[in-house]
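INFO  loader      accepted 1 record
INFO  loader      residues=317
INFO  predictor   begin
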Amino acid sequence: MYKEKIIGVVVPAYNEEKLICQVINTIPNFVDYIVIVDDYSRDNTVTVVKKYQEKLNQRLVLICHEENKGVGGAITTGYKWCLDHSVDVSVVMAGDAQMDPSDMERLIDPVACEEVDYSKGNRLISGEAWNTIPRVRYLGNAMLSLLTKVASGYWHIADSQTGYTAASLKVLRTLPLDKIYPRYGMPNDMLVKLNIYNFRVRDVEIKPIYGIGEKSGIRPIRMIPRLSWLIFKLFLWRMVQKYIIRDFHPLIFFYTLSIFLLGIIFPVLSFRLIYYWVTIGHIPPINALASMMVLITGLQFLLFAMWFDMDYNRNLR
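INFO  predictor   done
INFO  writer      dumping tokens
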């Protein structure tokens, strides 16, 4: 236990026979339950974990999926187990040993002390991040973090893709766990859902760990466009849920007008300018003025909407 709170660690694992031992051996002693969810591994992950299960008895729980459900699906399974067993703080750690167990106490402390409802690691705060994290991943993570700020409403949160998190029992009881996104976009989906229910979220600095033998199936070049589209859909869903259905805020009009002006009208006018420039050799001043007015107005609507959203969520820290 930690500060009289029951602590559970959910470890989603897929083909982690080489590193799962290191994860189990380094989990702090104050953790009451280690819930390893094998997501239909094709290697000897289950066999390795079962050997540890004989030593750790009831402290280590192994749950095996009969089909691959994705990392989000594995975490959801672990969350459900923690919910059923009234675990006060549920931590998520990857099975590839990329999360430093020495950071766990700082991660769970604000949740255990009931200062926040959900805490997450942030690798980008550290000065080591730029030199430790592969460049493509770092830049991709930074871009997705910016998009997630807009989509989730947690403007103070960065490193949206980290999976090192701690959730209170209240969070697990409130969120629709069966509707959590099952694949790699799960952290983004989780933040959006947390915001809709007005949960307090905090970033905690953690150490970035790479190059220890882990193998990632993620291809940033292909994943970033897919995740960007998912984040955009999550943004629209949050706008409807939070600012239309559950409450009403005029920022919905500002966002709508900005999307209309910048996403539809400005591209049409820009195409018209290019057409005139190619066909007659110059751009009529009135057309150039119209394009600039639409661009400036659209950006103003967008910035005001972001400002309103930031102010509305200022207490969720």
